[in-house]
Specification:
This protein is an alpha/beta fold. The chain is 38% helix and 18% strand. The two termini are 37 Å apart.
Length: 372
């Protein structure tokens, strides 16, 4: 991964689509440049997204996935539409199923469902609509031929972020996670962050302190309580907080701005969301969605149906943004990062992902203060 992860993967996508003889492609553009709404001439929408909790334009998980839908549809002449389950962050399995059914009834050929909370509704929808294909982002195999699951090695990009901020000179860190500690992806992000910070501190011969909490993140939404917590951390010395979980980052952005402090973004490059973002622990959501759609429309669904693909640095799907506008470190360099990244790709560096068993260990150079 050199300049930007998405550049490499976009080229791979173009080549693979040409090889499959798929519909024409156009020059790649940012997903945010493509309208969120369109009108299909026949009233049918071929590619659908059913959002996870939070807002569609969350600057993170939903938006990154939606951008993948829009990019593929735009480049391949497909119609697209998003569906948001009723009741927002309080959506039930029935609400999610109803949104999926609405998408299928409106002509969806493939439905993208991001978020582990979609599992029950997705299994029901896939069973009731066997001719529709489903992509389960941050999911697992449901044992159905018309469902393809994608999971990520979030511990890798969490590690990269923790390592980078410590190498840049920060030793007072924080982590605020979404889902109340029940979201496997957020757990891996946080555990990787702690490991990376510890390893960098060990190399530098320093110690780091990490405040770590799942408080106020269960809804993945901003809140006064979370902003107050983050503000208190910054006021007592915390320099950087990893804000992991949908739009809850907005609370941490606000606290960081008020204290001239920093934030690590999540899921996508959040540098444009706030000047306080020093880097982002990214997984290439948009590219993964495009890859899954290409498999379907390239008549290769049999290679991914009833499977779960776990994507990481080796596939170019986890990492930090290295574009000049996003690289905000003063000491840690892109060359140093690329070496670290390549060590993970080659297998020279293996990052533990067993959060449940190993997170509570004693770390050689990090003190983790869990706030409950």
């Amino acid at each position: 991964m050199k300049k930007v992860l998405s550049v490499v993967l976009a080229l791979v996508m173009v080549c693979s689509l040409c090889a499959c003889g798929s519909a024409k492609t156009t020059a790649a553009k940012s997903g945010n440049d493509i309208p969120d709404s369109m009108t299909a001439s026949d009233g049918k929408y071929q590619i659908a997204l059913v959002t996870d909790v939070g807002q569609l334009k969350d600057g993170s998980f939903n938006e990154g996935t939606w951008n993948g839908v829009k990019l593929y549809a735009s480049q391949n002449g497909k119609s697209y539409k998003y569906y948001q389950p009723a009741n927002g962050s309080e959506a039930t399995d029935d609400d999610r199923y109803n949104a999926m059914a609405a998408a299928a009834d409106a002509g969806a050929e493939i439905i993208v469902a991001p978020g582990f909370l979609q599992a029950t509704a997705l299994e029901k929808a896939a069973t009731n609509y066997p001719d529709v294909k489903f992509v389960f982002i941050d999911g697992w195999s449901l044992g159905l031929d018309n469902v393809a699951a994608v999971a990520y090695k979030e511990h890798e990009c969490g590690y990269f972020a923790g390592y980078a901020v410590v190498k840049d000179g920060y030793t007072k860190l924080g982590f605020c996670g979404g889902g109340g500690g029940t979201n496997p992806a957020c757990c891996r992000y946080g555990y990787g962050f702690v490991q990376g910070a510890n390893d960098a501190a060990k190399e530098l011969g320093v110690n780091v302190d990490i405040n770590y909490t799942w408080l106020y993140g269960s809804s993945y939404s901003p809140s006064t309580e979370l902003q107050t917590l983050a503000n208190g951390w910054y006021e007592t010395g915390t320099e950087v907080i990893f804000a992991c979980g949908g739009t809850l980052c907005q609370s941490v952005f606000a606290a960081a701005s008020a204290n001239d402090a920093k934030v690590v973004g999540v899921d996508v490059d959040q540098a444009n969301d706030s000047p306080v973002v020093i880097t982002s622990a990214m997984k290439e959501l948009a590219n993964s969605v495009q890859q899954m759609c290409a498999k379907f429309y390239g008549n290769e669904w049999s290679s991914i149906g009833n499977t779960c693909q776990t994507l990481g640095a080796k596939e170019g799907d986890t990492g930090l943004p290295t574009a000049e506008s996003s690289w905000r470190f003063n000491k840690f360099t892109v060359d140093e990062y690329n070496k670290l990244f390549n060590d993970v790709v080659s297998g020279k560096l293996v990052i533990d992902d067993n959060y449940e068993a190993n997170f509570s260990q004693s770390y050689s150079n990090a003190t983790v203060n869990v706030v409950e």
